[in-house]
C-alpha cells in the first residue's frame, strides 16, 4: 500500500471532523508500518479529537521514540501531555519544538496552549505578542492570543485578535466559539473588580488540572451526529426492505410509508451533516 494516499485520506477525514474514521483507517496501517512517524502523528490527533487521552499519549510517544528531535513529534507529544494534565512535560516538549523550528508559528501556538492549560496566561500572551504580528495569516494562533489576552484582563485587545482570526477565516469555529464565550463572560463585568473576576474565571476555564481530562469541544454535537448517521442507515435499510417486499408481491405498501421513510432518512442525513463539529485543531 502506498503511504501518501492513505495519509492524505486520513488528513481529509480529520479536517472534516471524522476522527473515528481516521483512527479506523490508521490502526491497521501503524500495525503494518510501525516506523511511520507521520501515521503516528495523525493517530495522535485522531485520538485527541475522540477524547482518548491514554491512546493519544501512546501514539505520541511512539512518534517521539522514532523521531525524538522532530518538531512535529514534539508538538503532538506536548498536545497529548497537556490533555493529560502533565504540564511540565507538555511545556518542555513545546519549548523544545520551538527551539527546533523557531520560525514555525504552529509551535509557538502549541507552547501558548500548553501555558494556558497550565494556568499561565501571562506567559502565553507574552509568548505570542511578537509572533501574532509576524503570523498574521494564522487564525488558530490569533484565537489563542485572544484567549490569553482575555485571561489577563485585556478584553478589547482580545476581541481585536479574534477579529483578525475571523478576517483570515470567516468560518473559523474556534474564533466564533471564543467570541460567544467572551460575550457570556462579559455580562457579569460591570466594573474593574468584576472584570478581573471574569478574566480569572475565563482563564480557569482554559486550565486542565492534573488527573482531570478536558471536555472535548463539540463532543455533544459529535454524539448527535453519530446517532443521526446510524438512524440514516436504518431508515435506508427499512426503505430497501419495504421496496423488496413490494416488488416480491408479498405485501402492498402504502405510498405514505415510502414518503415517511424518505423524509425520515432526509432529516437524519441533514442532522448528521449539520451536527458534525468542524475540526478546529487540538494542537
Automatic annotation (TrEMBL):
Biological processes, Gene Ontology terms: proteolysis
The protein's name in its UniProt record: Putative Zn-dependent protease
InterPro entries: TPR-like_helical_dom_sf (IPR011990)
TM regions (residue ranges): 230-249, 255-275
Top-level taxon: Bacteria
The keyword Manganese belongs to this UniProt entry's keyword annotation: no
Keyword Zinc: no
Molecular function in Gene Ontology: peptidase activity
Keywords, comma-separated and alphabetical: Hydrolase, Membrane, Protease, Transmembrane, Transmembrane helix
Amino acid at each position: 500500500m502506498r503511504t501518501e494516499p492513505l495519509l492524505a485520506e486520513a488528513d481529509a477525514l480529520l479536517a472534516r471532523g471524522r476522527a473515528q474514521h481516521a483512527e479506523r483507517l490508521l490502526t491497521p496501517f501503524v500495525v503494518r508500518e510501525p516506523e511511520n512517524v507521520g501515521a503516528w502523528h495523525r493517530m495522535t490527533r485522531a485520538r485527541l479529537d475522540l477524547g482518548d487521552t491514554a491512546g493519544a499519549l501512546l501514539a505520541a510517544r511512539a512518534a517521539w521514540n522514532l523521531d525524538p528531535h522532530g518538531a512535529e513529534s514534539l508538538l503532538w507529544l506536548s498536545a497529548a501531555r497537556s490533555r493529560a494534565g502533565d504540564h511540565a512535560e507538555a511545556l518542555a516538549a513545546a519549548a523544545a519544538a520551538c527551539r527546533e523550528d523557531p520560525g514555525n508559528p504552529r509551535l509557538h501556538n502549541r507552547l501558548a496552549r500548553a501555558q494556558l492549560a497550565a494556568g499561565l496566561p501571562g506567559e502565553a500572551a507574552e509568548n505570542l505578542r511578537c509572533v501574532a504580528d509576524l503570523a498574521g495569516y494564522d487564525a488558530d494562533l490569533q484565537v489563542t492570543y485572544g484567549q490569553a489576552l482575555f485571561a489577563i484582563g485585556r478584553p478589547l485587545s482580545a476581541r481585536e485578535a479574534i477579529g483578525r482570526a475571523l478576517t483570515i477565516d470567516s468560518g473559523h469555529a474556534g474564533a466564533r466559539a471564543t467570541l460567544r464565550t467572551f460575550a457570556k463572560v462579559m455580562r457579569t463585568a460591570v466594573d474593574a473588580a468584576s472584570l478581573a473576576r471574569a478574566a480569572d474565571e475565563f482563564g480557569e476555564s482554559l486550565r486542565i488540572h492534573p488527573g482531570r481530562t478536558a471536555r472535548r469541544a463539540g463532543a455533544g454535537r459529535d454524539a448527535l451526529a453519530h446517532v443521526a448517521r446510524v438512524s440514516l442507515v436504518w431508515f435506508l435499510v427499512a426503505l430497501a426492505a419495504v421496496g423488496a417486499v413490494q416488488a416480491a408481491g408479498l405485501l402492498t405498501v402504502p405510498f405514505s410509508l415510502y414518503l415517511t421513510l424518505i423524509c425520515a432518512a432526509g432529516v437524519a442525513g441533514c442532522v448528521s451533516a449539520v451536527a458534525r463539529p468542524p475540526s478546529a485543531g487540538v494542537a
